[in-house]
Amino acid sequence: MLRKHPFVGYVGSIVIIGAYLGLLYYVMTTFMGISFAQNNRPATPDYADLTGRSNRDGPNKIMVTTNGGKTWSRAFGTYDSPDNIACPDTNNCFVVGGSLGILTTGDGGKTWVPNDTDMLTSSLTHISCPKTNLCFALGENGRGSTFLSSTDRAVHWTSHSFGQVQKGLNGLACPTTTRCFVIGDLGRILVTTDGGKTWDIQTSGTDRPLLAISCATATNCSAVGQLGTLLSTNDGLNWTKPAFNYDRDFTAVSCPTAENCYALGGNITNGKFLATEDGGKSWQAVAAASNEGYYGLSCPGPNQCYVAGASGMVRYSSDGGKSWQLQPTGLNQDLNKVVCPSETTCYVLAPAV
After folding, report:
1. 71 CB contacts (<8 Å, ≥6 apart)?
2. Which residue has the higher pLDDT, 17 or 123?
3. Is the full-model pTM beyond 0.70?
4. 185 in helix, strand or coil?
5. Helix H segments across the chain?
């Protein structure tokens, strides 16, 4: 009598189990409509949300220029709300905000991939990417603010603790792969030098809310806030406030070099554009872009700046803000963010009114 070898029986069991799993997978995907793909929306400029609406024609727009603002094209339309954008180079950008989750492009805005963020417990509000495969983000989860990091183009995220509950965080800048600055209400400044594992609280010298921050190097940063607040550091530790009287809020700041920074503030009828050439020790008022409201600022070079704002208007300066050229985008809605990874390539966010 022949005796079945134990190995043969083991293999047979594996085959039978595999067949059952294959049949189960077929039934679930074919008849039940279940997908096991991590991201079942295609990497194209057009996908439908759960209501069946085409995001390509959504009221919230992402616009792009590759010729220094001479022409602008719509890179993406979405029914979600884009809040912030980070572009480590001209081809790679990451957009976050509200129910949008994370939207990424690796080809200069030709195609966009909506990353699946169902596993995230926080709604992302700010993002900073020192490299194309390394991003840091701020989020809100109802209990407070969270800090997250990703090392695979914003697909998977790791949450890091601030050490204590933090609320009212308004800005993030990560000039290196390990150092990040976070600013917020009551003049709060937090810094990490190990990618979010540990945090230190720095003294800002103000209790006014800080609204934006920009870092040219690991230690050269400027932050701006309410009621004319201007802060700068040249060592990444100590922050100074220059003597400058201004009673309006500064809402945006951009530092293309360690010496050159620009700050944008004011409202539609009373705008202010400031510049420093000594790393924030002193600031000078230069020509305002116009009387229209401008909310976004990005300066890719020491003398080159773009501002974006009301009624889809973008203005460009090649002389450090002394003069400005109007660059209509073709939109009538306000633009709230602009980021320029080069002197000729810029992206702007246009949330629906």
Report:
1. 65
2. 123
3. yes
4. helix
5. 6-30
